[in-house]
Amino acid sequence: MSNEGKKVKVHYRGTLDDGSVFDSSYDRNEPLEFTCMAGQMIAGFDQAVRDMEVGQVTDVRLPPEEAYGPRRDDLVQTLNFEQLPGAEELNVGDRVMLTSPTGQPFPATVVDKDDKTITFDLNHEMAGKTLNFRIELLEVED
Fold first, then answer.
1. Which one, of 2, 17, 44, lies nearest residue 132 by Cα?
2. Which member of 12, 45, 96, 102 has the lowest number of beta carbons within 10 Å of its beta carbon?
3. DSSP element (H, E) containing 89
4. Residue 23 β-bridge partners
5. CB 90 within 8 A of CB 113
6. What is the pTM of this model?
7. Are residues 87 and 115 in the same domain?
8. Per-residue pLDDT tens for 99-133?
């Protein structure tokens, strides 16, 4: 029986191939709720939950294409300080929220800075990475 279109509640632990944990609903003691296959989750996670049964635990390994996509060099942008007043106060490694010309906010990471310019990486921090999940299906609402 498919869970597609149904509200589900799961616990999960996400790890990288080196075993490091990048996220865990278990650690927060807060299950994740979402509508299965509604585009609220990364594609591979949705696919894994779609055919699970309540109480089932599954392990999935998602290549970048099924997770946050590949890293894109065109999403690394360098701006002059005049284009972004206040940017001279930022430091390499800072995560900031920028705003698109249409007003849409999006996260960016400062990856380089010199006397005149600052470079932002607009890729998702998990882009280009293979992600491993242990998923436990707790509830399904019809």
1. 17
2. 102
3. none
4. 14
5. yes
6. 0.82
7. yes
8. 888 999 989 999 999 999 999 999 999 999 999 99
